[in-house]
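Meet our chain:
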Amino acid sequence: LCFDSGAFSSGRLWHFEPKAFIEHFRKCSWLSEPDFVRTVRKTVKNESTLREEGRLTEKNVIEYLNQKKEKSSGATIRPSEMRKSLALVMRTFGVNSTMRLAHFLSQIYCETGRVSECEEKGKDSYFDKYEPEFDSKHNNKNELAKKLGNNQVGDGIKFKGRGIIQLTGRANYKIYGEYKGDATKFISSASAENLISSSYYCCDAGGFYWIQKQRMKVENKKLVNWGALSIHYWADQGTTYAEVKAVTKCVNGGSTGLDGIRWPCFEHAFYALNDSVSANDNVKFLS
């Protein structure tokens, strides 16, 4: 590769190593539709038996990334144009390296059923676990509801998990609203639905959660910060099972889906995004 440094035919040329161009352009973290499709694992593993199940095709995933999905009631459970919003949000929130991309995508693929649905599943009664329970002094006895900031009757289902990393609870909806300029922006029943009806908010809320999450630990009987602010801190630590488990802790609070979905999806996505020529058993491309 070369170009003339001055007037044409001057005889002075600049020469470039072709690999340098490849190295430079690989820094672009923007994923096209085919790129996204390559990062999605064909199957996931049953958490109990670790048998492969839930086979998807390229056609399925392209539909998930672009088309809206509704319940029989007409309520949205996956907005349209997810692919574009995901790409924009990853750029906005600094998901800009192969490791970060693989960690981020494997987590959202677990949270959303590989982008098939972006709302927490369950009958209305399922969300009673998030409902506040008050004693005679109006103290909230439900510790989970208290942790989520749910303090009014109906908050359980109203602030159910929505988005690519399912934002849950009045407190988290309020914090995200504050980030967008208005603490009440997602507090009404209608506005809370924006986290599932709009692909932008559906993805942006997940990106916001990712970068504002601070992991905590108990030290000398006190809760103290563990690591730096943002899940990026944990994603940047590496690509082993231990690192994926640490990222899962930040997203899920436990290890739900770690062995069956998050870890296999991470290994698949990381292989799809990097230059490795040696694939292990967790790499399973769509067909």
In short: The chain is about 45% helix and 10% strand. The mean pLDDT is 93. Residues 29-120+201-273 form one domain. The longest strand covers residues 216-219.
